[in-house]
Amino acid sequence: MLDALAGFPAYAIAPDWTITGWNAAYAALYPNVATVDPGERNLLWLVFTDPYVRDLLPDWETTSRRFLAEFRAEAGPRLGDLARSPIVQRLLATSEVFHAAWQDHHIEGFASRERLFRHPAAGVLRYEHHRLALADQPDLHVVIYTPAGP
Questions:
Q1: What is the Cα–Cα distance from 119 to 36, expressed in whole angstroms?
Q2: How many domains does the chain have?
Q3: N or C: which end of the chain has fewer CB atoms below 10 A?
Q4: CATH code at 97?
Q5: CA dist., res. 87 & res. 59, Å (int)
Q6: pLDDT in tens, 61-80
Q7: From the CB of residue 145, how many other CB atoms can be counted at a distance below 10 Å?
Q8: How far apart are CA 72 and CA 81, in angstroms?
Q9: What whole-number distance in Å separates Cα of residue 144 and Cα of residue 131?
Q10: 27: part of which helix (H) or strand (E)?
Q11: What is the CA radius of gyration of the chain?
Q12: Which residues constitute the domain of residue 84?
């Protein structure tokens, strides 16, 4: 399915936000996805620790906090256990910015929205950010970036 979305950056994430698959268009947007250690191929980890991602997102401070709020919202009834999850524990120990954001306790559900990327070769890119849940894989989400209008 990801490959069928050729031309549209797309990736799949597990409930803990591990990136489980991606297409060539996403690899062109974020080349590190193919080379990062599989144990660190987690969207939340990459947003808070990868300098490429920080540079790619012109609104990184807002976006990183929004991702954390969405991560918390998706935890649902597991929210109380979230602080003990391995990815959260690693981020609390590694990223001062994550640690500060974690203290905010902000929760926000996902909403489709416009996203800007500052790509080193392609310049500023504007996409609409959408997320799909697959009927036969309800724990897996597919994130798709479609070109935003003018």
A1: 18
A2: 1
A3: C
A4: 3.30.450.180
A5: 23
A6: 999 999 999 998 887 666 66
A7: 21
A8: 11
A9: 6
A10: helix 24-29
A11: 15
A12: 3-147
